[in-house]
Amino acid sequence: MITLYGSGQSRSFRALWALEEAGIPYKYKSVKIGGNTDNGTQTESYKKLNIQGKVPTLSDNGLVLSESGAIVNYIAAQNPQAKLIPTDIVTRAKYDQLCFFVLSELEQPLWTYSKHRFILPKEYRLKEISNTVHWEFEKTVSALEYQLADKEFAVTEYFTMADILIAHTLSWADKAKFNIPDSLLDYTHRMCGRVAFVKALSKSETIF
To answer: 162 Cβ partners below 8 Å, 6+ apart?
Structure first.
């Protein structure tokens, strides 16, 4: 059975949501990011699973994955009938392109902002980074708005893991008070209204 290690205030919620969408059995273990006792991510036992001491980490019959994009795709593959990842080669290419865009472009300013606010040691934080990351995000989110246009879902006529990656990242941006176009806010609210999202939220300490 799949075991997911995560913390609500992290990318691990993507994997938890994905598990609920896939409708497959799993165990969820909440861990404390940065903790070095009990269920902390810096314990020796946890770092045997994830050498970086980060979340999420997924374990399944000897397989260990630690990148949220790879994890949600693996989960999707566990239940092909749920159609959470495209099988047509052209649609899959578009799906991959959008997922990589989210992980490398849309998320990047948010992660930089977070690191310079509370993650990096104080001597390495730059207060002036705020203007830069907001400018970067506005350029990137405009590209996303163009790609989604008036679509109900991100890639095809049905919900996929790309929608999880996008909606989770935009929720993160909204909480961090980044500017998001109304159309993308509406999209995010629709995705976060899904039954699987609500179920995942009940198992997580995340506040959206």
So the answer is: 95, 98, 99, 102, 154, 155
> What is this structure's pTM?
0.95
Q: Could you tell me the CA-to-CA distances from 117 to 107, 133, 174, 176 in Å, in that order?
A: 16, 12, 16, 11
**H or E element that contains 15:** helix 12-22
3-state helix, strand, coil in the chain (%, to 5): 55, 10, 35
Q: Are residues 76 and 103 in the same domain?
A: no
57 and 144 together in one domain? no
Identify the CATH number of the domain in which residue 166 sits.
1.20.1050.10
Of the candidates 182, 177, 194, 97, which has an alpha carbon nearest to the alpha carbon of residue 134? 177
In this structure, is residue 144 part of a structural domain? yes
pLDDT per position as a tens digit, 161-201: 999 999 999 999 999 999 999 999 999 999 999 999 999 99
Q: 172 lies in which domain range?
A: 89-194
Per-residue pLDDT tens for 111-141? 999 999 988 999 999 989 999 999 999 999 9
**Residue 153 belongs to some domain of the structure:** yes
Say if residue 70 is in the same domain as residue 112.
Answer: no
| Among 39, 131, 26, residue whose Cα is nearest residue 72 | 26
- 141-150: string of b/e by CB count within 10 Å (b at 16+)? beebeeebee
